[in-house]
Structures are given as structure tokens and as C-alpha cells.
Specification:
Elements lengths: L19 H17 L2 H15 L2 H7 L4 H16 L4 E4 L2 E4 H9 L3 H13 L7 H27 L8
Antiparallel strand pairs: 1-2
Helix pairs in contact: 2-4, 4-5, 6-7
């Protein structure tokens, strides 16, 4: 009998029909996915990605006095990214969670510095700091450049672009 084509009822497994191999590979991939898809592992992976994106260690060096705040911002970004909701409320508007996750995963060192600066400059009472931070983080990529341009225009009008 040819060893390559043994029947499934025989005691020895099929050696190389090519039919069993993909199923074994799929099973292995499934086990790997199950391991990496646990919430704890997923959170750890995203935490590393977020810390790299925002240059966490450099932020701590540059803003040593804000360590707890930086940790809180990092945790808020992580919590938002790994959350399971379909929509996220930011500044009284509901956004698809994937849009918010994508935007938060694009935040970098400059965005976090901008958020820290906004917090330092704010003199009004913030009733819900979590909501304020979510809105500031979400809007940072689209408002940061305009904010700094307005600051330069105010402080050094000679550098303001003539329109």
C-alpha cells in the first residue's frame, strides 16, 4: 500500500495528501490568535505601540514634573483604543470608535506636548477632566498647528503672514 494515501480509518495518519496540512496550520494560527487576542495581551501590545508613538520616555525626561499627568494621558489613550464600544462620545458628538482609535494611534510627542500646554494655559474650571482630555487629544492633530500659528501671530506680529 502506498504510504502517501492511507485511509482515515487506518491507525496511521495521512502522510502527505496535502489535505490535512492546511487544517493543521489553521489550527496553529487559531491557537496563536487566541493567545494574542486576549484582552490583557492586546492591551499590552497597544500600550507598547502608544508609548513608542508618543516617545513616552522622552516625554518623561522633558516633562519630569508632569509624570503622573503623562501616565494618566497614556492610560486614557490606551483605554480608548482597547475599548469595545461601537461609538465614543467626544465633545458632545458621537464618533465611530474606529475613527477615534485610528486618530489616537496617530498621536505623537508633539500632540502630547500640545495637550500639556493646553492644560497649563487653561484658567477655566474643568468639571470633567476625562472628557476635556478626550476632546483635547482627539482634536490635537487638527488644532495644534493653528494654535501655534495664532500664538506666533500674537506674540510676533512682524512674522504673521500678510494676507
Amino acid at each position: 500500500m502506498n504510504n502517501t494515501y492511507r485511509s482515515k480509518t487506518e491507525s496511521n495518519p495521512i502522510v502527505s495528501t496535502g489535505e490535512e496540512m492546511p487544517a493543521r496550520q489553521d489550527a496553529t494560527r487559531s491557537e496563536e490568535k487566541r493567545y494574542t487576542d486576549t484582552p490583557a495581551v492586546r492591551a499590552k501590545i497597544y500600550e507598547q505601540i502608544i508609548r513608542e508613538n508618543i516617545c513616552y520616555d522622552d516625554l518623561l525626561i522633558s516633562h519630569a514634573e508632569d509624570r503622573e499627568l503623562i501616565d494618566g494621558i497614556t492610560d486614557l489613550i490606551l483605554e480608548t483604543v482597547v475599548g469595545t464600544r461601537d461609538e465614543i462620545l467626544i465633545a458632545s458628538s458621537r464618533y465611530p470608535a474606529e475613527v477615534v482609535r485610528s486618530r489616537f494611534l496617530k498621536l505623537n510627542y508633539s500632540h502630547i506636548e500640545y495637550v500639556l500646554h493646553c492644560l497649563r494655559q487653561n484658567t477655566t474650571k474643568v468639571k470633567n477632566i476625562r472628557k476635556y482630555l478626550l476632546a483635547t487629544l482627539f482634536n490635537a492633530p487638527s488644532t495644534m498647528d493653528g494654535y501655534y500659528q495664532a500664538e506666533v501671530n500674537h506674540d510676533m506680529p512682524q512674522y504673521a503672514l500678510a494676507r
